[in-house]
Amino acid sequence: MTDRAGEGTIINTSFNFIYSLPINIGDIITIRLGSQAGFVKKIVDWSKLRFGDQIDPRRGWIYQTQEQQGKDIVLYPDFSAGVLLNTSKIENTFSFQGGIAVHHIAEPDESFFGSTSSSPLPRKYSVHGGVTYYLRSDSTGDISITSLLLFQKQEEFNQINLGLTFQRKKGFIGTYYRNGDSFILSAGIEMLGARFAYSYDATISKLGNPKDGTNGAHEVSWGCVIKHKKKKLKFHPVLIPGF
Question: Are 223 and 195 in contact (CB under 8 A)?
Fold first, then answer.
């Protein structure tokens, strides 16, 4: 995944590998223990940054900065883990999913200044849950509506997301609200063994500024699931929204 901030001033690229172990409890409940190991590459373009010593009171930005500049690239590993509980369809009407996760377990150092300065990435804690209501379920596929709740905490910062998703067979559309900050619209489809999705994050807080193009963000994602041909154990499917 690649994220470009400030018109490419900072580019964050991450590669992640995810593994999960399912544990069945009876015929309805499945618990999955998950872990994620990844590698992150951060690039900063110092030429696009502006500092206070570059300003002339009358002529504006004309001076070269004397501020210390660090490395252009930072590389570090990143690890996360979590637990997911989900149910199969109950009376063919609804299912439940919920879980907890810890991100950036090792609190990696993101500093561009090496040993002269440290900038650890704080751990992030997440709690999420949702209920899926099946409007129709037959051999042609499910039609369902899913309500979602996500709470995240990183140091003193808290965030709550509320969402509602409509799914028909292999496609979905959804809308989400992040407390006091933004509305998110998303859509996606699963085809040819892959899942494609698009989302737009519309900022409604004071952080957004339509004049300089910072009032929203676009995201395009692609995912592929590799299935084993030989199955020695029988597991219950994880019934979670398709996004």
Answer: yes
DSSP state of 149: E
Q: pLDDT tens digit string along 30-48?
A: 999 999 999 999 998 888 8
Paired tokens of 78: 């990143």
Q: Rounded to two decimals, what is the model's pTM?
A: 0.72
**Distance between CA 50 and CA 64 in Å, rounded?**
10
| Second CATH level (architecture) for the domain 2-224 | Beta Barrel (2.40)
Element containing residue 44 per DSSP (H, E)? strand 29-44
Return the domain boundaries, the chain. 2-224
205 contact partners, CB below 8 Å, separation of at least 6 = 180, 181, 182
Nearest residue to 243 via CA among 157, 158, 153, 144: 144
Q: What are the residues facing 138 on neighbouring strands? A: 141
